[in-house]
Sequence to fold (596 residues):
Amino acid sequence: MQTVQNHTAAGSAGVNAAVNIEDIMQQVAEHKGCGTSGGSGKASCGSGAGENDLPPEIWEKVKNHPCYSEEAHHHYARMHVAVAPACNIQCNYCNRKYDCANESRPGVVSEKLTPEQAAKKVLAVASTIPQMTVLGIAGPGDPLANPEKTFKTFELIAKTAPDIKLCVSTNGLALPDHVERLSQYNIDHVTITINMIDPEVGAKIYPWIYYNKKRYTGVEAAKILTDRQLQGLEMLTERGILSKINSVMIPGINDQHLVEVNKAVKSRGAFLHNIMPLISAPEHGTVFGLTGQRGPTAQELKALQDQCEGEMNMMRHCRQCRADAVGLLGEDRSAEFTTDKIMEMEVNYDLDARKAYQEAVEKERQAVVAAKQEELQTLAGAHSDIKMLIAVATKGGGKVNEHFGHATEFQIYELSTSGAKFVGHRRVDLYCQGGYGEEDTLGTVIRAINDCHAVFVAKIGGCPKNDLKTAGIDPVDQYAGQFIEQSAIAYFREYLEKVAAGEIEHVVKGDAEIRQGALIAA
Amino acid sequence: MAYMIVEENCTGCCACEPECPNQAISEASNGLFVIDPAKCTECIGHYDEPQCVAVCPIDLTCIIDDNYPRYEAA
Ligand code: SF4
Ligand code: SF4
Ligand code: SF4
Fold:
């Protein structure tokens, strides 16, 4: 478990900004001491955080935010609209023909909308899907490089759908110029992509920036960018706007450096740090794609996230969603909301119906938390150094409720005597789609979850079952329909008992592959 | 002379549009961008470099169009 002392000390040592940041930072530092105030004994808050782990103001802001809380991701949906495709910097992992790789996936194209079309789309989606609680303006491009369109969209939505939370993602170069305006529009989350604080590292990631009507290159460009990013972050913190930092992990270029980045952003009040794997394929035509720069493996990514976790909350559930995807976990409904269809839709925005839905969800979420707490009691007093990963097939609701063959992603939990902790996702291709005779699909599933000891599913066929066993992954279907964390803890308790009784021997599993293909597919 | 946009290279990212001091750049029906030679002043008198050239992520996309006489600042 983390200690409050640690965080507080690290927090104040790193603070060199204005005095009024201190208070906010203090608050942020305190909430990092998860489990101490709420007494829940959880090892981390961040993505798995519950009400007791965060100060109420921050919890209120993030609890229904699917991009901030894995658990909220089960119940709430977010959508992004692309209204401002211009960009003022060049990243080596980006090709402007496609989405902004900072916030979504390269290699996919989002529909470009006018602010009016975007506002209508948001209303149409929110009226059809009561779970839709968050609107983000992200790539392609940098929303703050084209501020008029971005702010116009926010203005239209704030007027017609006041219960929708607004957020914006930016590369940070223009951020200091717009913080004031962001605070006026009541935008409570900003995501800044920060990949370096050392301009030498930055020069390898950014060939140029466009600033003050001039193009800068190399180290000089990276220096301006990092100064502006950190300044923007400090300004957000001073105004009490939550900021999340995205970083793209690029092996050999910024992987170790991201630990420094993590410290720098934490000391300036960032609320969450999301380290994402580089996605790069030659066919995207990005510089990194063409030079053969590889992305990290699952183990490298997790090791870095673990290393940073002592410093601050790590976000582990980012799916690098396609920017204009609409919907809940694993279910993209954007085809229902194309521009043509929206423009014809009669929109009836029913605030009360949305509220009623959200209240029902809150009840269900409390049940999940209660079930987990109960099961955690049974682990009390158990001590073991054993840690293991499990993969879970789920459609949402915090339950083990997906057929192995229907899963397009698995949620990964790390089990230890302090409980079950969500650590990430693995996307896979559909195993059981059948028809295209792709013999090796099961092989790719296994490679994607190869570091897991078990896979929890609602149902599984005999054939994949045997292959999984051969690969040393235990197929578990006995918890079908039950709560994930509760089931995982029960499984882990039995596992420990068997190890103690000498029935099984605990082996450490190997590394797994991050499935680039599955990340890129629309 | 005025600047022009090479259609094959343009990605339609629209970065150039808001930067032009003369509103000479607009979106064409194909989603790509075009420069109105009658409005383009090569940024003379506004900036040291043509802004469309400076911000365009693709090299050799905003280039000089020799079909027009050299712009002379008033
Ligand atoms: S900030 Fe986004 S759109 Fe701009 S170059 Fe980087 S990845 Fe591409
Ligand atoms: S050169 Fe300057 S004036 Fe001409 S189109 Fe480009 S930005 Fe506009
Ligand atoms: S900046 Fe370049 S690529 Fe982007 S729209 Fe203008 S000409 Fe096209």
